[in-house]
Automatic annotation (TrEMBL), chain A:
Organism: Marinomonas spartinae
Protein name: Leucine-binding protein domain-containing protein
Leucine-binding protein domain boundaries: 26-365
Gene3D superfamilies: 3.40.50.2300
Signal peptide: 1-24
Automatic annotation (TrEMBL), chain B:
Name of the protein in its database record: High-affinity branched-chain amino acid transport system permease protein LivH
One of the record's GO cellular component terms: plasma membrane
Membrane topology qualifier: Multi-pass membrane protein
Native species: Marinomonas spartinae
GO BP: D-alanine transmembrane transport; L-alanine transport; L-isoleucine import across plasma membrane
An annotated Gene Ontology molecular function: L-isoleucine transmembrane transporter activity
Record lineage: Bacteria, Pseudomonadati, Pseudomonadota, Gammaproteobacteria, Oceanospirillales
Superkingdom field: Bacteria
Protein's gene: livH_1
Compartments in which it is found: Cell inner membrane
Automatic annotation (TrEMBL), chain C:
Membrane topology summary: Multi-pass membrane protein
Compartment list: Cell inner membrane
Keyword Transmembrane: yes
Lineage: Bacteria, Pseudomonadati, Pseudomonadota, Gammaproteobacteria, Oceanospirillales
Family matches, as InterPro entries: ABC_transp_permease (IPR001851), LivHM_N (IPR021807), LivM-like (IPR043428)
Domain High-affinity branched-chain amino acid transport system permease LivHM N-terminal: 14-107
Protein name: Leucine/isoleucine/valine transporter permease subunit
Top-level lineage group: Bacteria
């Protein structure tokens, strides 16, 4: 008897005896970088998933079963991602996973989940490769790099009318993917970038690069990467007297962006693409308020992780906790979440890209542009 | 032309920071022949201490920049010096008579400890300090301009002042003489009544203080840091130390500046993707021509 | 030494000094937590850690004043003897251990769960890496901090050979070894003039250069996006659910598909390769070339005076080590199925070096034990998730202080004229 059938049998027994017997918990993995350089994002995923699980459990759980979260640290290393994925599948008997964060971890891990028939709902990896390989069990509640590139590029061409665009990336799967998508769409609009280069993650001195940006007279700098590098980059750009517009993707969505840039005056006027404001949905507003009341600011991917957990719970509830059927179910049904109604296409991507432009103001807050 | 000049300024400031950190590597190597891999993380700790000091000082109402700078420097240098002392005492002294590789592994372990200890204590977030000194001088060159922030000028001034003080200590004071004696022959020095353990401890404290100086300056300038910055900075500074000739103080500064300049010029004029490849290739090239670095003493082989 | 006077006053002073130092060191970082440009106080944990330091230092100080403590300290400062030489006619009591390990090793894939199996595979890959670096560092005494470069060449060799040339696992296994050896030779030539620590930084630079090229040469390596690597085949049978060309393993043998089959197969092949490398290394050490490595490590000048070609000897060690790392890289790529440059950072080199030093320089058994410890340990520590790497670092330091010469001492059989040999 294979693990899956064994689990199914056990589950049917459990469901049969549901009225009287104590419940077996349903294990769901939360995988992400809880240590290492990206630990801040891991924390966002964990807080979001934890809150979602608590809320679902408070409302009676999935089919009456309580969610039991299992934290799996991959430190954003593919090697560790593979080994935690095997561990989640093998030792912890998870039916679904919310994670991972880095695309480079999500891709190898998704193979393991696909083999084991475990549902994977990804809250944060935007690399197109993740879903393009056609694995049946992989979904994501965030957008794709190319969708993000589309939104940003059309804004650059139509609204900002920038002619000389410098594209910088941080040479990670995420940042490079974003920069490539931008380059491709921009070229599609007939705009050729004046510069396309990478910087090294973990460094803080980008003065040489900034001088080079100045030397090509860029009027817009598009950065594919995270706020840890975007902050110093925009600051050094301004310190060297460049007035180029700065634009980036969802990797800088964090109040820390202001902190690392050295104050609100540096981030003033920075554009970015990000999912439509979750507080615009009634359900989202309530959850955000609860987060804030508990002393945690639900920034960045927190709500994405919350949404991913809701998608997992909803699909499992509809299919008697069978992850394989849940995946099939998700391909043809939509789920109501704190971030609105989510519908998935054949590959497991969202059918509607919810990326919109945001702009940072002189008080260090970001606002959605109409 | 303006671009090349700007890149030279960039390279010089970056290089002087590399040089300050390289001093820690080169002094420790000179005296006990070990590569102190935790040194980059000591620099990282000093960045945190800088932010803490600034937060404390502004909390107590200190507003003027010179007072904040001096207060932060004193606080950071003392505490970082303490880190240097404790690390040597705990992780390296028990291994004084073991093979150099054991100490190396211990140092790598120490580096992991520091990174994760800071991450656990301060959270994994990116941290930053507010901009305290803004403004810049702008020189017009041709139809372009070179812009140098006051902070960059301050970095250069303080870095070279720090180097000057250190050179004075090593060349003129009693402690400096003891350091040099220990470096030349530890056994002989101890026979002559020098407490070599104390000397080694003070070398760690001095090296850490220089890293702290760099930490304060860089943190004030770039404004941001996390628990991971020590790694890259450490490798770069170590490269600088080797480039200049490990064990030689002026060599560390020279190596730092060469490394900073070559990185800036290569990144600015050719490609920032391959700037680190270029610096490492430069290092290999220099070592092939001069196997002991630029200012290092050639190793004497006994026959 | 007959009477032990314990001065509690001394212990007390020691403890107070240590506690004060702990207060200075831990106070700011642990007590004042940055929060944006403000801070929060959390001095409670500072007091806890200062108290721990105080008590710990007091007990330690007291213990080292007792008779046993003094004995321990004395033994500690004097345990610097080198290789243990066994008598010439020494018969090991442990002859049964090799067959036992072999049998257990062969049984592992059939009893272990997939998760355990993947950890064991990773452990074996590190055994290979450790053995390779052991030749370079342990035997030839060349400090190599860029060993991960050869590992990357092996791994990327498989992935790129598969994607660009259509080569599979079996053809790439020897090719990758040769490629890595060539890279070792290219690096080796300029490096051989240099002394100990200059060598360290040059090799470190080499490792970084390899990684940076892999990251930046987009058109060839796919850069940070990574690249897929093929699974091994058994006489052309693939370990996949469905195959584009021909039959798959589970179809041929008519068994239900199980992703563990791939890992089992990788494990068995790897197991054989590790034994082969162990055997080769065991023989090499006794051959003239192995003796030359060690002799060169001990005294280069003496060796050169005796007519040893030091360039050739060093180069051969470098190339041997590199070739083994290349093989390990191929296994890593095939095991993982997807590789990108983040797997080949300096930390990896440091880890491999830690395996060699922790295992006891030059000791084969030690390397095997240490490799398993260092790969299994982080997995065991998953229970304490966020303290994982911190504990790992602490263990590294503590292990070095406790056993600076590694877990297993190198032993060597002594020589004597054999009976009956014509004199």
């Amino acid at each position: 008897m294979s693990n899956a059938t064994l689990r199914k049998t056990l589950l049917s027994i459990a469901v049969a005896g549901a009225a009287t017997l104590a419940q077996a918990d349903v294990n769901i993995g939360v995988a992400g970088p809880f240590t290492g350089a990206n630990a801040a994002f891991g924390k966002q995923l964990w807080e979001g998933a934890k809150k979602a699980a608590a809320d679902i459990n408070a409302a009676g759980g999935i089919d009456g079963e309580k969610i039991n979260l299992i934290k799996a640290d991959d430190a954003c290393e593919p090697k560790q991602a593979l080994s935690v994925a095997n561990r989640l599948v093998d030792s912890d008997d998870v039916v679904a996973v919310v994670g991972h964060f880095c695309s480079s971890s999500s891709i190898p891990a998704s193979n393991v989940y696909a083999d084991a028939g475990v549902l994977m709902v990804n809250p944060a990896s935007t690399s197109p490769i993740l879903t393009d390989r056609g694995l049946p069990n992989v979904f994501r509640v965030c957008g794709r790099d190319d969708q993000q590139g589309d939104v940003a590029a059309s804004y650059i061409v139509d609204t900002l009318k920038a002619k000389r665009v410098a594209i910088i990336n941080d040479k990670t799967t995420y940042g490079k993917g974003l920069a490539d998508a931008m380059k491709k769409t921009l070229n599609g609009y007939g705009v050729k970038e004046v510069m396309y280069e990478g910087l090294t993650r973990g460094e803080k001195d980008f003065n040489a690069l900034v001088t080079k940006i100045r030397s090509v007279n860029a009027d817009l700098v598009y950065f594919g990467g995270l706020h840890s590098e975007a902050g110093p980059l925009v600051r050094q750009l301004r310190d060297q007297g460049s007035k180029a517009i700065f634009m980036s993707g969802d990797g800088i969505v964090s109040d820390e962006f202001v902190t690392v840039a050295g104050g609100a005056k540096y981030v003033n006027g920075v554009y970015m693409t990000f999912g439509a404001n979750p507080t615009s949905y009634p359900a989202g507003k309530a959850v955000v308020k609860e987060f804030r009341d508990s002393g945690y600011e639900p920034e960045g991917y927190t709500l994405y992780a919350y949404t991913a957990m809701q998608v997992v719970a909803e699909s499992l509830a509809k299919t008697n906790l069978d992850p394989v059927e849940a995946a099939t179910w998700l391909h043809s049904h939509s789920v109501n979440t704190v971030m609105g109604k989510k519908t998935f296409d054949k590959k497991g991507d969202l059918t509607v890209s919810d990326y919109v432009m945001y702009k940072w103001d002189d008080k260090g807050k970001y606002h959605q542009l109409d | 032309m303006d671009i090349v000049l700007q890149q030279l300024v960039n390279g010089l400031t970056l290089g002087s920071v590399y040089g300050l950190i390289a001093i820690g590597y080169t002094m420790v190597y000179g005296i006990i022949g070990m590569i102190n891999f935790a040194h980059g993380d000591v620099y990282m700790v000093s960045a945190y201490l800088t932010a803490i000091a600034i937060a404390l000082l502004t909390f107590f109402g200190v507003q003027s920049f010179p007072f904040i700078l001096i207060g932060t420097l004193i606080f950071t240098i003392i505490v970082t010096g303490a880190y240097g002392w404790v690390i040597e005492r705990v992780a390296y002294r028990p291994l004084r008579n073991s093979s150099r590789l054991s100490v190396l592994i211990s140092a790598i372990g120490m580096s992991l400890i520091l990174q994760n200890y800071v991450q656990l204590s301060q959270g994994p977030n990116q941290q930053g300090v507010p901009t305290l000194l803004s403004g810049a001088i702008r020189f017009h060159v041709g139809d372009g301009f070179v812009q140098i922030t006051y902070m960059k000028i301050l970095i250069l001034l303080i870095a070279f002042a720090g180097m000057g003080v250190l050179t004075y200590i090593i060349q003129k004071t009693k402690l400096g003489r003891m350091c040099r004696a220990t470096q030349q022959d530890r056994k002989m020095a101890s026979i002559l009544g020098i407490d070599t353990d104390k000397v080694i401890s003070s070398v760690f404290v001095i090296g850490s203080s220089m890293a702290a100086l760099a930490g304060v300056l860089v943190t004030l300038d770039y404004g941001s840091f996390d628990f991971y910055i020590g790694f890259i900075m450490g490798i770069k500074a170590f490269t600088a130390a080797v480039l200049g000739g490990i064990g030689s103080l002026p060599g560390a500064m020279l190596g730092g500046i060469i490394l900073g300049l070559s990185e800036s010029l290569f990144a600015g004029l050719i490609s920032s993707d391959y700037k680190d490849v270029f610096s490492f290739s430069l290092l290999v090239l220099i070592l092939i021509i001069r196997p002991s670095g630029l200012l290092g003493k050639p190793a004497v082989e006994k026959v | 030494m007959t009477q032990t006077d314990i001065s509690y006053k001394k212990s007390g002073t020691d403890a107070i000094i240590a506690a004060l130092m702990a207060l200075v060191v831990f106070g700011p970082i642990m007590g004042i937590v940055l929060n944006g440009y403000q801070f929060k106080l959390s001095f409670d944990r500072v007091f806890v850690i200062v108290a721990i330091v105080f008590v710990g230092r007091f007990l330690m100080s007291t213990f080292f004043q007792t008779h046993r403590g003094k004995m321990m300290a004395f033994r500690y400062t004097n345990n610097n003897d080198g290789v243990t030489v066994l008598p010439p006619n020494h018969k090991s009591q442990m002859v049964w251990i090799i067959p036992l390990v072999m049998v257990i090793g062969l049984l592992v894939p059939f009893i272990a769960s997939k998760y355990v199996l993947t950890i064991v595979i990773l452990g074996l890959i590190y055994v290979l890496l450790g053995l390779g670096l052991n030749i370079v560092v342990g035997l030839a005494g060349l400090l190599d901090l860029g060993f991960v470069g050869f590992y990357a060449i092996g791994a990327y060799g498989l992935a790129l050979g598969y994607n660009h040339l259509g080569l599979g696992f079996w053809s790439m296994l020897p090719i990758a070894a040769i490629l890595a050896a060539c890279a070792g030779a290219i690096l080796g030539f300029p490096v051989l003039r240099m002394h100990g620590d200059y060598l360290a930084i040059v090799t470190l630079g080499f490792g970084e250069i390899i990684r940076l090229v892999l990251t930046n040469w987009q058109s060839f390596t796919h850069g940070p996006n990574g690249i897929t690597a093929p699974a091994p085949t058994l006489f052309g049978l693939e370990f996949k659910r469905r195959s584009a060309h021909g039959e798959t393993f589970h179809e041929f043998f008519n068994v239900p598909y199980d992703s563990a089959h791939k890992y089992m197969f990788v494990y068995l092949v790897l197991f054989v390769v590790v034994w082969a490398v162990l055997f080769i290394k065991h023989r090499l050490v006794k051959m003239p070339i192995g003796r030359a490595w060690e002799a060169l490590r001990e005294d280069e000048i003496a060796c050169r005076s005796l007519g040893l070609n030091h360039v050739l000897v060093k180069l051969s060690a470098f190339m041997m080590g590199a070739a083994i790392a290349g093989i390990a890289g191929v296994f890593f790529a095939t095991y993982q199925g997807f590789i990108n440059p983040t797997s080949f950072t300096f930390f990896e080199s440091a880890l491999i070096l830690a395996i060699v030093v922790l295992g006891g320089m030059g000791s084969t058994v030690g390397v095997v034990i240490a490799a398993f410890c260092l790969t299994v340990l982080p997995e065991l520590l998953r229970e304490v998730a966020q303290y994982r790497i911190l504990l790992f670092g602490i263990l590294m330091v503590v292990m070095m202080i406790w056993k600076p010469r590694g877990l297993v001492r190198v032993t060597r059989r002594g020589f004597a004229r054999k009976e009956g040999v014509v004199k």
